[in-house]
Amino acid sequence: MVRSLWTAATGMIAQQTNVDTISNNVANVNTTGYKTQTAEFKTLLYQNLQTKTTTANGEEKPISAEVGLGVRNSSIATSFKQGSFLASESDTAFAINGEGFFAVKGVDGNTYYTRNGNFTYAVGTNGMMLTTSDGLPVLDSTGKEIVFDMNGYEMSKVQPSSDGSFGYLDDENNYVDLGMKIGLFQFNNPGGLDKLGQSLYSETPASGQAINEDISEDVVKSTVKNGYLEGSNVQVADEMVSLIVAQRAYEMNSKAIQASDEMLQQANELKR
């Protein structure tokens, strides 16, 4: 009887994590570049009540009698399915079509990766630089910060192209390439990236090292679309259905605990 209480309790704990994951997806439905997460489960150890060759009468039988001890969360997987493109009036809005990631430099000096291309210009030590909305410098295809020398041209004349490169309009209104391009990086296993919040991911041994699309010939190149942002790939209808299923599973585990408790009470009353 105690086994049933513990088994049902593990189910409630696992479904609580499931509800937390779904709630986080729904909360980020409007977060640029957010990727849906899904809680995955696995069974716990089994107890062997009877072997497959012995019954209560000592007879042989083909299968054993085993009882599971519940469930636990095995992982929370991330779906990197492409999100829809949302038009933006910002000149520094970029969306990735493909499996690439933007690279940014964190405050600790390490490189992090994101699908959020809602960038802006900020004043740096050497001029104007392209940064995220949190002020983190965006890196180019060589891993360097994208910095514009304000002494050479006016920032109002800087024009990003559709492929993520930058140029400016000269006095004759001709486009001049500046030789700077937003870097795109891929991973052999993006699901192994460590999620840090603020739409940032960090490289891990499970994800593998970042692959620079600009110099690698072994990956399918991603494309950058200027004037658009990649929306969240969360499907609200699917999340609401999953939330109902998780709630029902939580309730059933709760009822299992209640039924076990009532059976224990009846067993105790038999002794009186």
Q: How would you sum up this structure, described in words?
A:
There is one protein chain. By secondary structure, the chain is of the alpha+beta class. It has 2 domains: 115 residues, no CATH class; 146 residues, no CATH class. It is 22% helix and 32% strand. The strands form 8 sheets. The protein has a 4-stranded antiparallel sheet, with no helix packed on it. Strands 9-10-11 form a 3-stranded antiparallel sheet, with no helix packed on it. Strand 12 and strand 13 form a beta hairpin. The radius of gyration is 27 Å and the shape is elongated. The chain starts with a helix and ends with a helix. The mean pLDDT is 86.
Per DSSP, the total helix count is 2
Give the strand tally: 20
Order of helices and strands: HEEEEEEEEEEEEEEEEEEEEH
Largest sheet: 4 strands, antiparallel
Distance between the termini: 19 Å
- Overall helicity: 10-25%
Overall average residue pLDDT: 86
Computed over alpha carbons, the radius of gyration is 27 Å
Specify the structural class. alpha+beta
Number of domains: 2
Q: Are there runs of 5+ residues with pLDDT below 50, and where?
A: none
Overall body shape: elongated
As a percent range, the share of strand residues is 25-35%
Record the strand order, biggest sheet: 8-7-15-18
